[in-house]
Specification:
Blueprint (H helix, E strand, L loop, with lengths): L6 E11 L4 E4 L6 E4 L7 H7 L7 E6 L13 E5 L14 E6 L2 E11 L2 E5 L9 E12 L2 H6 L11
Antiparallel strand pairs: 1-2, 1-3, 1-9, 4-9, 5-8, 6-7, 7-8
Length: about 160
């Protein structure tokens, strides 16, 4: 069976920046399971995996526009420290969920300067090309429930 829309794929993977810095790996863990065609993984990786089957190995470089997008300067803002009510101490590197016009958004504090806090709403991997080494472990048909929910259930997936 091949990876295609409405199929579940289980993959072992290692992802690094194109400079060789390790970003993530499934090594030592269960394979990553995803439902193809439902935006469960970045588009560039999903495209590279289309048509592959169990046992296939893929090495692919994914450009930012097919991964987490380009960095956008307008996603970096200064906000008053008072916006963080209830948080005892704000420090660079802290992450918060903020409400945006498009719904919840993860932001990272990049700088605290007196009463002002600089936050960045870009994904931490925005603007970065990524290199993937993938081994396809299994491909199977998705259940009707998985298709209705848009993600897999059970091993390696979501549990309701």
């Amino acid at each position: 069976m091949q990876i295609e829309k409405d199929k579940v794929a289980l993959i072992d993977y290692t992802v690094k920046t194109t400079e060789g810095q390790l970003v993530d790996t499934s090594e030592g863990n269960e394979p990553l399971a995803f439902l193809c065609g439902f935006n469960n993984i970045i588009p560039g990786l999903e495209s590279a995996l289309m048509g592959k089957q169990a046992g296939d190995q893929v090495s692919v470089e994914v450009q930012p526009e097919d991964a987490y997008g380009q960095r956008r300067d307008e996603m970096v803002k200064e906000v008053p420290l008072t916006a963080f009510q209830g948080v005892e101490k704000i420090e660079a590197g802290m992450q918060f969920q903020a409400e945006s016009p498009n719904g919840p958004q993860l932001i990272m504090v990049t700088q605290v300067d007196g009463d002002m806090v600089t936050v960045d709403g870009n994904h931490p991997l925005a603007g970065i090309a990524l290199s993937f080494d993938v081994t396809v472990k299994e491909v199977r048909a998705a259940s009707a429930e998985e298709l209705a929910h848009g993600h897999i259930h059970g091993v390696g997936g979501h549990h309701h």
